[in-house]
Amino acid sequence: MATTSDTPAPGPVRTCVGCRARATASELLRVVAGSDAEGRPALVPDPDRRAPGRGAHVHPTLECWQLAVRRRAFPRALRSGATLAAAPVEDHIRATSGPSPTSDRQDQHHTSGSPQHRPGTGARSS
After folding, report:
1. 118 pairs with which residues across the strands?
2. Distance CA 87, CA 75 (A)
3. Long-range contact pairs involving 112-116 (C-beta distance under 8 Å, separation at least 24)
4. DSSP run (H or E) holding 75
5. How many Å apart are CA 126 and CA 118, to the nearest integer?
6. Tell me: the pLDDT tens digits for 46-68?
7. Which of 41, 45, 54 is nearest to 83 (CA)?
8. pLDDT tens, 2-35?
9. What does pTM read for this prediction?
10. Cα 121 to Cα 90: distance, rounded to the nearest angstrom
11. CA 107, chain centre distance (Å)
12. CA 42, CA 19: separation in Å to the nearest integer?
């Protein structure tokens, strides 16, 4: 079945807190406020989108993640006054995005056959 611009996106649509582009919830990683292994307040990845509480969504790419952290988007989106450690989510993104590049610039030269998100435009390259 072909989709057109008149056809609504399948599933709920959310906004990435990094690049501010809208995408289906299934394309984004949900992040919630929780605790790390030592019990300190932290951002926690919720790939199954089932954790209780308020969630924020981000494309599972280092570019969007770093942009969201730089913009301090998570405390605002999660309405958290506490400082939240970001390591658990960054580790999850690095683990699921494939081999770790030697620099952030190399992330733009993705060579697998799948489309890659371009945070500056909200578009996907092919």
Report:
1. 123
2. 15
3. 116/61
4. helix 73-78
5. 11
6. 999 999 999 999 999 999 999 99
7. 41
8. 545 556 668 999 999 999 999 999 999 999 999 9
9. 0.71
10. 22
11. 15
12. 21
pLDDT tens sequence across 71-111 = 999 999 999 888 899 999 999 999 998 665 444 444 443 33
- Separation of first and last alpha carbons in the chain: 21
The structure tokens 């060579």 sit at 111
Both tokens of residue 41? 């307040």
DSSP string, 28-52: SEEEEEEE-TTS-EEEEEETTS--S
Cα dihedral 10/116/74/39 (nearest 10): 100
CB atoms within 10 A of CB 55: 19
d(CA 74, CA 33): 9
Q: Residue 116, SS3?
A: strand
75 contacts: CB under 8 Å, gap ≥ 6: 81, 82, 83, 84
Measured between alpha carbons, how far is 68 from 60 in angstroms, rounded to an integer?
11
